[in-house]
Amino acid sequence: MYRSVAAAVALVATTLCGCSAKDAAKPESAKLLTQAVALAAPLPRGMFDGGSRIAVVHARDFAFESPDTITSGWTTVHLMNDGPSLHHLQIVRLDSGKTVNDLVSALHNPGPPPTWAVFVGGPNAPDPNGHSDAMIDLPPGHYALVCMVDMPGGVPHIAKGMYRAMTVIPASGTPAAEPVADATISLSDYAFTIKGALTAGPHVIKVVNAGPQPHEVEMVKLAPGKTATEMLAWIAKPEGPPPGNALGGIAAEVPGSLNYFKANLSAGHYALLCFVPDVKDGKPHFTHGMMKDFTVE
Q1: How far is the C-alpha of 171 from the C-alpha of 177, rounded, in Å?
Q2: Average pLDDT, stretch 177-197?
Q3: Do residues 267 and 279 make contact, with C-beta atoms less than 8 angstroms apart?
Q4: Mean pLDDT within 28-36
Q5: What are the contacts of 153-160 at 24+ separation with CB within 8 A?
Q6: Which of 43-47, 87-91, 192-196, 238-242 has the lowest mean pLDDT?
Q7: Do 209 and 257 contact (CB within 8 A), yes or no?
Q8: What burial class does residue 280 get, using C-beta atoms within 10 Å of its C-beta: 0-12 exposed, 13-18 middle, 19+ buried?
Q9: What are the strands of the beta sheet with 268-273, ordered from one edge?
Q10: CA angle 165, 168, 170 (to 5 degrees)
Q11: CA 119, CA 265: separation in Å to the nearest integer?
Q12: Of 103, 207, 227, which is closest to residue 156 (Cα–Cα)?
C-alpha cells in the first residue's frame, strides 16, 4: 500500500518545523498550517495549533512525533505516515491515574484491555508517505498515542516502542463546533452500515459505534479487479505489490463513541475493514464478516 502525497508547500514545513505551541498560535503560523493541511504538504512535527484546532502527528518506524499537550474539544488530528510501514494513531484515554507505561505493561497480558484504558479512536492507517485526518472530541485528561499495527512480522508496533504520552488540558473560550458530515458509517457486531452517498470528491464521514464492543473502520481503495479478500490475504502475507491503497478512517473506538474522518474519493471499488480482536475469541472482526465493499462512480 503505497500512495505518495505531493510536497506542494514544503517551504511551510521548513518554516514551522520545530516551532513551539506558543509560536503555532500566532496568526501567520495558523494560516500556514491550515494551508499545509489543505494541500497535504509535509507538516511540522509535534505541533498543535489551538486557533485552527489542528494537532499534527508524524509516524515513522517505530515512533510518534506529536504535541505533548493540546486543549480539549473537537480537534482535527492530522497523521502523516513517514513510513516505510503502515501506521495508525490509536488514541487511548488513561483513567484512574494510569500512565502510558501502565498501558504497555497491561497490553502484554492476554485478553481485552483493562477498563481504565478507553480506546477513543484516532486517524486510522494511511499508506506510507500518506496522511489521514480524524476529528475527535477529547475531554481533559491523560492519553496514550499507540500504534497497534502488526505488519510486517506480526508484532504490534507498540511492542517496538511506538507509543507516546499526551495530555489534554481544559480549553478556554468558545468550544469548537462539532464537524458536519455528509455521510455516516455505523459499526456493529459485525457489519458496516453506510447512510448517505459516498460519491467522487471530498467527504466528512461520521463514524458511530453502535455495537456492544469496540470497532474500527479502515477504508481501502482496491486496485482494479481486486477484492477485499485479496487485500486481507496480502496483509497476512505481504508479498508483491499490494492490491489496494490504505486511505485511513477511524481507529478502534468503544461502544457509543462518535468520531469523524475525511476522505477524498475517486471512482473505483473500495472496502471497509475492521481488524479489532473480538472480545469472545480474540479473532479479528473481519473473520466474523466485518468487511464491506462499495463502489464510487
Answers
A1: 13
A2: 97
A3: no
A4: 42
A5: 156/107, 157/61, 157/62, 157/85, 157/87, 158/104, 158/107, 160/61, 160/62
A6: 43-47
A7: yes
A8: exposed
A9: 69-71, 163-169, 141-146, 90-94, 117-121, 244-253, 215-222, 268-273, 291-296
A10: 160
A11: 27
A12: 103
Amino acid type, 118 = V
- Cell readout for 11 is 517551504
Of 41-45, 69-73, 285-289, the poorest mean pLDDT is in 41-45
pTM: 0.84
Residues in the chain: 297
Residue-level pLDDT at 112: 81
Residue 285 has pLDDT above 70, yes or no: yes
pLDDT tens digits, one per residue of 117-131: 999 999 999 999 999
- Enumerate residues 6+ apart whose C-beta is below 8 A from 215: 187, 188, 189, 209, 252, 253, 274, 276, 285, 290
Residue 245 backbone dihedrals phi, psi, to 5 degrees:
-125, 130
Q: Which three cell numbers stand for residue 35?
A: 494551508
Distance CA 108, CA 102 (A): 10
The Cα–Cα gap between 34 and 294 comes to: 31
Here the cell at position 42 is 509535509
Backbone angles phi, psi at 282, to 5 degrees: 75, 0
